[in-house]
Amino acid sequence: MKLEKQHIATFLAILFHVSGLVGILFTPYKEWFIQNTPLNLGLMALLLIWSHKGKNISFYLFLLTAFLVGMGTEMIGVHTGHLFGTYQYGSVLGPKFNEVPVLIGFNWFVVIFCSAAVMQQFQDWFRTKIGEDGTDLPPRIAALSMVIDAALLATFFDWLMEPVAVKLGFWKWSGQDIPLYNYVCWFLIGLALQLALRWFRCNRANHFAVHLFIIQALFFLALRTFL
Length: 227
Prior knowledge:
By secondary structure, the chain is mainly alpha-helical. Helix content is 73%, strand content 4%. Helix 5 packs across helix 6.
């Protein structure tokens, strides 16, 4: 049986995240696994791009948009505190541009796109269920739900990740608590990027993106619980 790209990508994502989880929680090589976080994040972004079906100019334009918006808003946040709050990045996430790790721009793309893919799959399932009795979602309601729910899901992912990222030295906040303002900004910026994704008319159907979101969410949930 010929393995599809999405199967290979999912296998590699599980392998790397399980290895990282075990390495951080149960081995004396915790620091080595943490320092190799850029390898994991970079590989996941490449796998998402590689596995996506129907890549076209719109897909790459959205990738560029998400990268630039992510980097730009993070630079504003780091240098002014006007977005997200007052925080600084550590050295764990690799090379920086203007005090922001380059990987962060790609991570914005991954989180936003994966959130959209999850909600697209959920909405397709929901349409099938309600379509059995001859009804359907009004197009405007479906579009609004997709954009808002995907932005909320991306914000939830950040909430899940934040305490772990601080413990692992990805970044640090000026205060002891993660500000609520951070999540407000995540939702608003995520909402804008979800609107951009819709405007570019990108294909949001991607099984690997759904799997990657679940894998990474479980990874950070486990670390949040046991670290």
